[in-house]
Amino acid sequence: MIADDVRSLIRLFEDSDLLELSVEHGSRKLRLRKGAASVMLDDLALRADRVGIFHSAVPPLVAGAAVSAGQVAGCIEALGVRHELVSAQAGRIAEIAVNDGQPVEYGQPILIFASSASL
Q: Is the distance from CB of 54 to CB of 118 less than 8 angstroms?
């Protein structure tokens, strides 16, 4: 598979109702999985919904800043395609866990929110 084919598959996958897609071509394999980046109530973190390179929002968010539900916190670039990372809930940022341009893994915390007790 070449890069343009992969990008086309990603766009088609994102526009579909599928949750997961696996493609094999010779010895090469591609697996796509949808997941919503959202605030996880157990540890109050906005987590990466895919593997890629994290890019901060412009202007970048800082510790102590308030984030509203639906606010774009940055994006994750995967295979040359940028995917917005959106907060599902409002909160105040306690820590920025990832630097701009840093590789991230699926489920890795990007932003850590302050607990509701400290808001």
A: no
What are the helix (H) ranges across the chain?
3-14
Q: In whole angstroms, what is the distance from residue 95 CA to residue 75 CA? A: 17
CA–CA distance, 12 with 93 (Å, rounded to integer): 34
What pLDDT, in 10s, does the model give residues 17-51? 877 778 777 766 777 777 644 333 334 788 898 99
20 and 45 co-located in one domain: no
pLDDT per residue as tens digits for the range 72-104: 999 999 999 999 999 887 889 989 999 999 999
**Domain containing 2: what range?**
1-34
For residue 59, cis peptide bond before it (omega within 30 degrees of 0): yes
Q: Please tell me whether residues 21 and 75 are part of one structural domain.
A: no
User: What CA–CA distance (Å, rounded) separates 54 from 78?
Assistant: 9
pTM above 0.85, yes or no: no
The helix/strand/coil state of 86 is strand
Same domain, 51 and 17: no
Using only C-alpha atoms, the chain has a radius of gyration, in whole angstroms, of 16
